[in-house]
From TrEMBL:
GO molecular function terms listed in the Swiss-Prot or TrEMBL record: DNA binding; transposase activity
UniProt organism field: Photobacterium proteolyticum
Pfam families noted in UniProt: Y2_Tnp (PF04986), Zn_Tnp_IS91 (PF14319)
Signal peptide range in chain numbering: none
Entry protein name: IS91 family transposase
Domain of life: Bacteria
GO biological process: DNA transposition
Domain called Transposase IS801/IS1294: residue spans: 111-272
Occurrences of domain Transposase zinc-binding (ranges): 11-71
């Protein structure tokens, strides 16, 4: 049963065909392509695995923190009507806040990875940014890495005040965005220790490229009603939610990002352009006995499948698109 059944052409010739060839028995075969959409839960497993592998290669043997920037409910209307503008503002403001806090605290080079999530556990619209930050900083003048504190990075209340002020200022200056009449005085920013970073990255990767609702969370589709389950954080229990088909489709589709908008962005030492500096830091920590240098991400393997005739490996030799 396909949870995202609005993709009527999933695994049909309407999406195109892949041509497969077996060098052992010279068999030829054609298979319909998947949709390939970045929000489709069926098509993005390899993309998710590749992203996680690249992030693992960047990990340092230091403590990591996850900072979560949230918006109040009054601004969710802007996320429905102007998602590209609002989400771009969120990334720009969050990065400026963290860069300024790092500059005030130590003045060295830091880095972080920001990931946009648009839903709550119930899959309602709830845009927020998760930011993974390593504790510590690099002093370029001395080519030295300074270890950060284990249980403290930044004051969450101070982050929230600056986050609120800069978001409001950015929205006021944006020609496509309009502030609502009322807004709460206090906003929420969470800053917590998340160990060595890998568990947090795995958590973020779950919804990064594979849609907002996995197939296995769809309980039933009958009588024009869709029932799905979700994990309630406060009670730590599984709950279910039933919606009419049309409302369920809208619930899912409101989380589809505008074309070209990046959901995940790297900054500072974790940016792709900082590979040389990051490698230098890893080598320094390796010399102090605190690091086993992570391997580079494995190259993306060629697509293969088992030959239905001789059970040897077949290779994809071409793609045919409709029209």
């Amino acid at each position: 049963m396909r949870s995202y059944f609005y993709l009527d052409w999933y695994k049909t010739e309407a999406a195109g065909l892949s041509q497969w060839y077996c060098q052992h028995c010279h068999a030829n075969d054609r298979l319909p392509l998947s949709c390939g959409h970045r929000h489709c839960p069926q098509c993005q497993h390899r993309t998710t695995a590749n992203w996680l592998s690249r992030q693992e290669a960047k990990l340092l043997p230091v403590h990591y923190f996850m900072i979560t920037f949230t918006l109040p409910a009054q601004l969710r209307g802007l996320a429905r009507t102007q998602p590209r503008a609002l989400y771009s503002v969120m990334f720009a403001v969050a990065s400026s806040v963290l860069k300024d806090f790092a500059q005030r605290q130590h003045g060295g080079q830091s880095g972080f990875t920001a990931v946009l999530h648009t839903h709550s556990r119930r899959r309602d619209l709830h845009p927020h940014l998760h930011v993974i930050v390593p504790a510590g900083y690099y002093e370029a003048g001395r080519h030295q890495w300074h270890k950060g504190k284990k249980r403290y990075l930044y004051n969450a209340a101070a982050l929230a005040k600056v986050w609120r002020a800069r978001i409001l200022d950015a929205i006021n200056q944006h020609p496509q965005l309009l502030l609502p009449a009322t807004l709460p005085d206090e906003w929420v920013v969470d800053c917590r220790h998340v160990g060595r970073g890998l568990p947090a990255l795995k958590y973020l990767s779950r919804y990064l490229y594979r849609g907002v609702l996995p197939d296995h969370d769809i309980i039933s589709i009958r009588d024009n009603q869709v029932t799905f389950r979700y994990h309630e954080g406060k009670t730590n229990q599984w709950q279910s939610r039933t919606l009419p088909v049309v409302k369920f489709l809208w619930l899912v589709l409101q989380h589809v990002l505008p074309k070209g908008l990046q959901r995940v962005r790297d900054y500072g030492l974790l940016h792709g352009n900082a590979k040389v500096v990051r490698l230098r830091i890893q080598l320094m920590l390796m010399q102090t006995g605190r690091l086993v240098l992570p391997a580079e991400p494995a190259p993306v393997a060629k697509a293969t499948r088992t030959c239905p005739y001789c059970e040897q490996m077949m290779e994809c030799v071409g793609i045919t698109r409709p029209g």
